[in-house]
Amino acid sequence: MTAIDMEAEYNNRARVPEHPAIIEGWHEEAEAYRKTQENAVLDQPYGPAPRNSYDLFPASTEAKQPLIALFIHGGYWQALDKSAFSHMARGLNAHGFDVAIANYSLCPAVAVADIISEMQELASHLYQTFGKKLLVTGHSAGGHLTAALMATDWADRGLPADLVAAGMPISGLFELEPLVETSINKAVGMTPETARDASPILWPKPKKGHFRAVVGAKESDEYLRQSRMLVDTWSGPELTGSLDIQDGADHFTVINPLADPQSGLVTALCDLAPCRDAGCRLSPPYLHSVVLIRSGDPHAPGSGPSHSPGRLHTRALPDRQGRPELPPCPQGDDGHGAALPAPAGGHRARDTAGAGRRRARSRRLVAERFPVER
């Protein structure tokens, strides 16, 4: 049997020589979209680390879905920035979804396990802030983080077991050990053991939920295998998944349809939501959220500039059937809710008091920008 060349399989920059122009186009479209979104609230903190922030893009329709969308980027856990992916909110915005675009700390400053913990912290923050459950989607390393959020034991954290009800990993990585001997791992620094520990495919699978594993037809055999493996492995009485191979798409172009409200990918993402019509009744009486995760390549440009001094902390909205607001979240020392345990590595010890004050100040901004519906 011929050995698989993992470097060739996973080095997407080498596989797609035109990737610099594609990434430049992302930056241009993202900046243009931000300029059109006067109600966007940017650079909102969810944790103490410098990159623990997200941008919120409100729905562009008057009738809003009972969901919020979060897009968490990829870049092999070591590159890119939320500022290159603002336009990925356009598709869901047009269908009544509010969309948050996330940042997180990058390797080698942190480990992949730390990034998983940051995304878990963000998911908890969104639920505690907006009172809504999550539908998650992400691309490349973001696809890995999507699966990690789906497989998290939320009940063990004192949150609803179905906090993440559905997900769409796009070009996802679910088994990380094949990356250990590639150039990608120079910055990531995984050992075979830590790669296995960070592989959602090796975790206990979610007990329930819906997901759609998306991958480009022009991607490598290994990327196709990873998505097929997830669909084959994650199944159960209340857990259903499907494989979506996008014709003509490579690792970089596969996410472009997220910016098109009329695309089949956006329609499929909307269809994953447990309840997609504004005003529908949900059980239990909580609202839901959508999570979006951005992607890229380790050799792509790094973080972009920040865009807004505003800070966001919202109150839970009642649904459109007149249910009362959710009760207040348990309060922690920082005044915005109980914190999750800090991950290994110690980077969360920085300025937690200052982060708490910033979160508290954000309440005033949201009260003005996102008034509670009565």
Taking all Cα atoms into account, the compactness measure Rg is 19 Å
Strand arrangement in the largest pleated sheet: 8-7-6-5-9
Helix-strand pattern: HHHEEEHEHEHEHHEHEHEH
Anisotropy-based shape: globular
Terminus-to-terminus distance: 66 Å
Number of strands: 9
How would you sum up this structure, described in words?
By secondary structure, the chain is of the alpha/beta class. Helices cover 29% and strands 16% of the residues. The chain has a five-stranded parallel sheet, sandwiched between helices. The N and C termini lie far apart (66 Å). The model is unreliable at 276-352 (pLDDT under 50).
Features:
five-stranded parallel β-sheet, 9 strands, 374 residues, four-stranded mixed β-sheet, 29% helix, alpha/beta
Architecture blueprint of SSEs:
Layout: H1 6-10, H2 12-15, H3 19-36, E1 41-45, E2 53-57, E3 68-72, H4 90-93, E4 98-102, H5 112-130, E5 132-139, H6 141-150, E6 164-170, H7 185-188, H8 192-197, E7 208-216, H9 221-233, E8 238-246, H10 264-272, E9 287-293, H11 352-369
A few lines on this structure:
This protein has helices at 6-10, 12-15, 19-36, 90-93, 112-130, 141-150, 185-188, 192-197, 221-233, 264-272, 352-369; strands at residues 41-45, 53-57, 68-72, 98-102, 132-139, 164-170, 208-216, 238-246, 287-293. By secondary structure, it is α/β, with parallel strands linked by helices.
